[in-house]
């Protein structure tokens, strides 16, 4: 079956877009009405006071001895008195660029 040249969701998108554009003035007017109205003062209800909570006694935990870790022997490192000499690189000549570049001339037709 070949696909339809007019997708079916295009009509739904068009209807939603048109309805939102038509009702946008109504939404603004309702929002303004909500901002301009004043609400009556309602007294806040008093909350009942809660009884104090009993203190919980925690059981005494015995002190645990700290475990002793075995001491590791220090590794013996070879003594290095000086660094090996760096290799010497040969001096390379700097490249030179030509001062004038000649372009081939084109004949005009």
Describe this structure in words.
The chain has 109 residues and is mainly alpha-helical. 25% of the residues lie in helices and 0% in strands. The chain is built from two helices and no strands. The chain has helices spanning 9-22, 24-36. The mean pLDDT is 81.
- Weakly predicted, low-confidence segments: none
User: Termini separation (Å)?
Assistant: 59 Å
Radius of gyration: 45 Å
What oligomeric state do the depicted chains represent?
Answer: single chain
Structural class: mainly alpha
β-sheet strand percentage = under 5%
- The overall pLDDT, averaged over residues, is 81
**Helix fraction?**
10-25%
**β-strand number:** 0
- Profile the largest sheet: none
Query: How many alpha or pi helices?
Result: 2
Element string (H = helix, E = strand): HH
What shape does the CA trace take?
flat
Can you give me a brief rundown of this structure?
This protein is mostly helical. Helices cover 25% and strands 0% of the residues. The protein contains two helices and no strands.
Key attributes of the depicted protein:
mainly alpha, 109 residues
SSE arrangement:
Layout: H1 9-22, H2 24-36
